[in-house]
Amino acid sequence: MEASPLSGEVFGALINLSGRRRFTSQRLVLYAVLASQGQPEAVATAREALTLFRNAHHTLVNGNDSLPGIFCSELQEAYYGRLSGAAQIAGFIELAERALDAAERGARTAPALLAELVEITTPVLAVLNQITSIYEELSKRHAVQMKKQLRSVITDIETIARQAKMVSFNARVIAARAGQAGKEFAVVAGVLSNITTEIDDMVKTALSAASA
C-alpha cells in the first residue's frame, strides 16, 4: 500500500486528530481516577473524553468525507503490524468503558478495573505517540516532495521565459528593420517583453516560497 497524494491541509488535520487522540486518552484516565474518588460529574467528563477519543480513532483508521483512513504501508504496519496499535487502542477503549460503567454503578470491580486502566495507559500512550510521529514524518516527506515539484515547474517556466525573451528581442530587431511597416509588430514585441518581465518576478516569488 503506497501513500496517496494528499494536501498539506489534510496532513495537518491528521496530525491534529492524532494529537487529540493522545490528549483525550489522558483526560479520560484523569477523570476516571477522579470519579473513583467521588468527584461530581467526573464520570460524565470521562465519558465525553472517551467519545472524542473513539471518534478520532475511528476517523484515523476508517477515514471520512474529507480525510483518508489508513492510506500507506507505514500506518498499516503501525496499526496492524509490529505495534498492534489498533488492538491496543481497541482494548483501551473497551477497558475504559467497563471501568466507567463500574464506577457509575459503584460496583466492587471498579477499583480493579481502574487500576488496570491506569496500568495500560503508558504503553497505549507510547503507541499513540509513535503513530503521531508517523503522521508528522509523512507530512515532512510531503512538504519536501511539493518543493521538488515546485522547483521543477519553476525550471520549466524559466526555460520558457528565456525563449520568450529571445523571440521578443528578435521581434524588436525585425520591427526596427521594417521601419513604418513594423510598428505594430514592435508593439507586440513590447508586450511580450513585459510578459517575460512579469514571469521573472513570479519565478523569484516562487523560488522564495520553495526555499522557505
Describe, in plain words, how this protein is organized in 3D.
There is one protein chain. This protein is mostly helical. The protein folds into two domains: 8-147, Four Helix Bundle (Hemerythrin (Met), subunit A); 150-211. The chain is built from six helices and no strands. The model has no long low-confidence stretch (mean pLDDT 82).
| 3D shape | rod-shaped
Counting structural domains, the number is 2
Q: Would you identify the CATH architecture of the largest domain? A: Up-down Bundle
> Strand fraction band?
under 5%
Summarize model confidence as the mean pLDDT.
Answer: 82
> In whole angstroms, how far apart are the ends?
31 Å
Instruction: List unreliable stretches of 5+ residues.
Output: none
In angstroms, what is the radius of gyration?
30 Å
* CATH T-level topology of the largest domain: Four Helix Bundle (Hemerythrin (Met), subunit A)
- Helix count equals 6
**Share in helix:** over 70%
- Secondary-structure class: mainly alpha
**Could you give the count of β-strands?**
0
